[in-house]
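User: Run a structure prediction on this.
Assistant: Running it now.
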Amino acid sequence: MSAPIPVEINLHAVSKVLDIRFEDGASFQLPCEYLRVYSPSAEVRGHGVGQEVLQVGKRQVGINDLEQVGHYALKIGFDDGHNSGLYSWEYLYELGSHYQAYWQDYLNRLAAAGASRG
């Protein structure tokens, strides 16, 4: 089974939220900070389990570029200069579906590291 395909994507620059609606009716509001700290790039995820890099100080990050890549992903350019990693439709759907759990995990990891969202 293939991942649902987005039918609408809107960036709200002022509120720093990416709205994405999928063909199956699912709709998600993904904050730019959330997308940035869960970037699929090697810079964030590392090159293997346990090599992830906790992203700190990203509370005010915004998106300054969205580019569709083929029929399967978005390339997102953030205003902190980060622009690597492709957000596949499947990954965006996953981020939306698991937002509460993933966000809480991020906040827990920040707290454990004594770090700040900035």
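The longest strand covers residues 6-12.
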